[in-house]
């Protein structure tokens, strides 16, 4: 299709304007507000005990969620691609469920299951607090990030097929050796993307986590909860901007990491 | 030596292997030849342990390996699509089996370099498979399979994914390699020319059964049945019998043709035909013929014979089979 220069420029302007208005302007506004008061004010605001605790909690959740997702995500992807069993369609749908279900619904259903009156409520009476404790926040985050590793690894497994693994077995490699030496290196980029997406989503999760967290500043607030409570409860809008900037900073670092890895992949 | 006894394998209702029994002598280069779906790949993969038989036994070098995992069968396997380890260099690919066996580093390095020299990939040690051509990748795969000193080498349509020129070269090269290395080799192919060219023994498979086993000359000259005859080389139907196009002689005179034909025992007789087309294929000349009843067949003659006959389109000739006086004994199908 041939378009005139005018039409092309017009289309580009509209597309760019849409992006700028929808995404760039709000983010830049927060940055402007944050650093408008000077870098000192920003640093002070993210060095309060509540902020440090929130950062640590967010990173702790990521540190627990990522390995679990890698382990079960790869296992699930292998089962879905290589397995020949009934009910694969159902499992495919279950894996996609977290994409479809609103996080707030996840939070409510977790309370129903793990809360004091829930099916597994007995655990709480034994002194293992799930809801309004760290385990609840981890489970909520696991729920919403479950599809990422599976969905990134699955197509790669399809693509590589099983011949390399069969070749390894005829050369004497055990199942375990084949997995570590052949399968895992072959899926490493899919797995890396899955991990990056998991990190980004785990850091940013709000709806599911707010339902199952007790939300005490300095104890059970993640970074997203800190932004929320500073803004809504404390009317500390500047503090909210600063915390939001910190959160964005972490996301940017993750994205930069991914870009660097991607560049490395292209050269090998 | 490999012995397959009563091997059976079904995929649902489809019998991929139907009571196959086969001996593969030590040191031989045996081709499993057949059309797609004949069970030849299933048989090879069963020998490797990549498929589990529903019944029967596989014995390699006197050891019953029927229930043994592929890792412990002492085999080397080469796949049609190379199955190169894409994230490893050529050196690491070839070294894989030795690394798994935890051989000393110096020994691995020496052996890998030797093998790469044998397969003509010296100097390619640090390349990745993506930087090799198809033929090079397959030679790397062969070196990788040979590195573990397999008792038997199994090749599943190894040249199937390569273009015709490379395929012909690699075939010759494999033959020479086999003469040097002497490892018992089984090659799966659907290409009769490839089987005739490289193998010293051929097993023809059809519908999960073995039709005939023998050396290439026997199979070509004394096929056990019409299937083997038509699968190995081209055939023409003359008077209801299958004859090789180069075993058909043409004459302009019916009397002469009949006199000569009388000497051939069990021959299909003289057939009158009209020349449809004369095709010169270099040294050979193919003459497309048609009988009164509309049956088409082709005769293959030398250039000198064609010139002597001086045939033109539309002329009538008399065709007869020239397979010697003992044709009936040589080729049972002709005696029917």
Automatic annotation (TrEMBL), chain A:
Transmembrane segments: 9-32, 52-81, 93-114, 126-150, 191-218, 238-261
Domain ABC transmembrane type-1 as annotated: residue spans: 55-259
Any Pfam family the entry gives: BPD_transp_1
An annotated GO cellular component: plasma membrane
A molecular function (GO) term: ABC-type sulfate transporter activity
Membrane topology reported for the UniProt record: Multi-pass membrane protein
Localization in the cell: Membrane
Keyword tags: Membrane, Sulfate transport, Transmembrane, Transmembrane helix, Transport
Domain of life: Bacteria
Main location: membrane
Subunit structure, as described in the record: The complex is composed of two ATP-binding proteins (CysA), two transmembrane proteins (CysT and CysW) and a solute-binding protein (CysP).
PANTHER family assigned to the protein according to its UniProt record, in alphabetical order: SULFATE TRANSPORT SYSTEM PERMEASE PROTEIN, SULFATE TRANSPORT SYSTEM PERMEASE PROTEIN CYSW
Function: Part of the ABC transporter complex CysAWTP (TC 3.A.1.6.1) involved in sulfate/thiosulfate import. Probably responsible for the translocation of the substrate across the membrane.
Stated name of the protein: Sulfate ABC transporter permease subunit CysW
Organism: Pedococcus bigeumensis
Gene this protein is translated from: cysW
Automatic annotation (TrEMBL), chain B:
Gene symbol of the encoding locus: cysA
Pfam families in alphabetical order: ABC_tran (PF00005), TOBE_3 (PF12857)
UniProt-recorded Gene Ontology molecular function terms: ABC-type sulfate transporter activity; ATP binding; ATP hydrolysis activity
Identification of the protein by name: Sulfate ABC transporter ATP-binding protein
Domain ABC transporter span(s) in chain numbering: 2-232
This protein's UniProt keywords: ATP-binding, Cell membrane, Membrane, Nucleotide-binding, Sulfate transport, Translocase, Transport
UniProt GO cellular component terms: ATP-binding cassette (ABC) transporter complex
Organism of derivation: Pedococcus bigeumensis
Lineage of the species this protein comes from: Bacteria, Bacillati, Actinomycetota, Actinomycetes, Micrococcales
